[in-house]
């Protein structure tokens, strides 16, 4: 009876590609979450200053600014987006190996080498993001696209929270000295490399559109006149940029508040992240239903408002337990923001030169990603953590209101038709 009713995991998905794109997400998030939640703390153990910690947030975005558009042209010129995407994963994975070697450098500059490697790693990884988004858009169409992305995020977030919690437990309880703790960070870097090797395997299993013939027409860069005439893309890009600035300004400040003010260690950082991840996992299905009923643009407003209140609530917490509860609440909106930012972008990019439009969008968000954390750290230094976080919260609400104006404009435009 049990055997007759049992369904293999693969059969629980509507399509083979959905199954493998979910496994792709699982492997990618395992690689990310075994290292990235602690990337700043690793820097601190290597002697990084507050400014270098801010650069860990900013340099990846700076690197992406210069490579996204030429990288997108390269992707569009390639015969197979799937092949390019796999190669970019492999290039990114090699940086984890290099990072694992940094502690062996017997020099005061090793913290700088670490920061620079984190920045350089974003060259292949940021091009990968554009390549993966374009590849995903080619493989999945219509409502299946929303379903596939929601399923991927659901399982990826579940595995991600388990990975983060285990990593935090190990970093806190296994090492007895700081030297031993650095050895664990090195081991995690190698594990991240191995998880990305698994991601390459899962990506290779996805059925994708046929490769372009050798004599295919070369892509052309969209002219400014073409972009300007695409009002939906232009307006969404501008509104997103404003919100991204307010969103990314707070990134280093959250870390400073957790570690410098509430004295969180690696385990507490993991617990706080996992609390948000659990509520994200539980809410993905709910948000997917709401998106299907009300649309991505409307849900984006709700998600943006939820994330806007985060820095304001954050600095009211005077214990790590309270902070964990706040992060669990915010995780509900984080799931919706992840879904709707991406889905909105795919709704406004044209099929022709799609990869180039995504690259233009990501480049502008990269400019924000470079400047905003540095501005946030500067604001914190000239005022205090409480003023800076409240200012960022108000700024995010302004960005949310601009998303509302965009939604209202699109609704009026649809009603006229």
Would you kindly provide a written description of the structure presented here, covering whatever features stand out?
The protein contains 17 helices and no strands. Helices cover 82% and strands 0% of the residues. With 417 residues, the protein is mainly alpha-helical. Helix 4 (50-77) runs antiparallel to helix 16 and helix 10 packs antiparallel against helix 17 (385-416). It has a single domain (14-208, 220-416), classed as Up-down Bundle (Growth Hormone, Chain: A), CATH 1.20.1250.20. The N and C termini lie far apart (56 Å). Mean pLDDT is 87; it is low at 1-9. It is found in: Cell membrane. It comes from Caldanaerobius fijiensis DSM 17918.
The helix/strand order is HHHHHHHHHHHHHHHHH
Give the CATH level 1 class: Mainly Alpha
Count of β-strands: 0
Overall, the morphology is globular
Organism: Caldanaerobius fijiensis DSM 17918
Keywords: Membrane, Transmembrane, Transmembrane helix
Protein name: Major Facilitator Superfamily protein
GO molecular function: transmembrane transporter activity
Please provide a brief summary of the model.
With 417 residues, this protein is an all-alpha fold. It has a single domain (14-208, 220-416), classed as MFS general substrate transporter like domains (Growth Hormone, Chain: A, Up-down Bundle).
Please tag this protein with its features.
single chain; 417 residues; mainly alpha; Growth Hormone, Chain: A; 17 helices; globular; disordered N terminus; Sugar_transport-like; MFS; transmembrane helix; MFS_trans_sf; membrane
